[in-house]
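Thread title: Can someone regenerate the structure for this chain?

I was given the following input by a collaborator and told the matching structure tokens would be attached. They weren't. Posting the sequence so someone can regenerate them.
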Amino acid sequence: QVQLVESGGGLVQAGGSLRLSCAVSGGTFSSYAMGWFRQAPGKEREFVARITRSVDTHYTDSVKGRFTISRDNAKNTVFLQMNSLKPEDTAVYYCAADVARPNIRNLRAPNLYEYWGQGTQVTVSS
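Best answer:
Regenerated them for you:
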């Protein structure tokens, strides 16, 4: 059974930075594409960033130039470096694993990801 555990969330002032981590166990991490999603209160879960098994990346427009997704296959971990944070970035952030389509760069739909973590809260104060 593949398990994903996020960490690194917290409270930060606008303009600050956070680095989220997602540790993956129970599967073959290096063969997956990985994604980050977020969900604010009262809103649907939305795509944030994706990294394929070949390290191609894709971002939603609102985080381009501020967020960076990366992976360390030796540590079975995917990261989301978040800089220049804004209050509208406040949400629960989830990582997810795409097992079936690991080489496609721009897959955003949550239902295409087979495994999910429990989420980590990010709160950006103004």
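The longest strand covers residues 18-25.
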